[in-house]
Amino acid sequence: MIVVDASVWxxxxxxxxxxxxxxxxxxEEQLCEGDGVVVPAHALAKVAAAxxxxxxxxxxxxxAVELILKLPSVKVVNVAQxxxxxxxxxxxxxxxxxxxxLCVAAAGLLGIPLVTLGGEQQEQGGECAEAIPPxxxxxxxxxxxxxxxx
Length: 150
Prior knowledge:
The protein has one domain: Rossmann fold. Helix content is 59%, strand content 10%. It contains nine helices and five strands. Strands 3-2-1-4-5 form a five-stranded parallel β-sheet.
């Protein structure tokens, strides 16, 4: 199980982005049937906004969120009091941006890695939870023998 932040989802839906291949290369079983992917609820708004802004097409932002929600292994976690308070502690201690602190906090609370393209989250959030780029997650799964093509 992993937490996936908005940056990875956004790039996964934008083929013209330099990081698209790394974000698209996850084993299909991880996203469709695997151990599970956790998405903090606020990240859905970030995905829709970023894709709509970058493509100038609001429908693409909505479609991306709909596709994420249709994946059987995706679990959306609400930003309730426990996650909000942990996000505040992470923000104060590790200093990622406010909304990014919630993704780091979700990973820390669940004891699972955060997959992100955010260098700030990888550098600063690493003290509060394991934060890794998509390429590192792929290599991990390959070493564990869980690789399949997308």
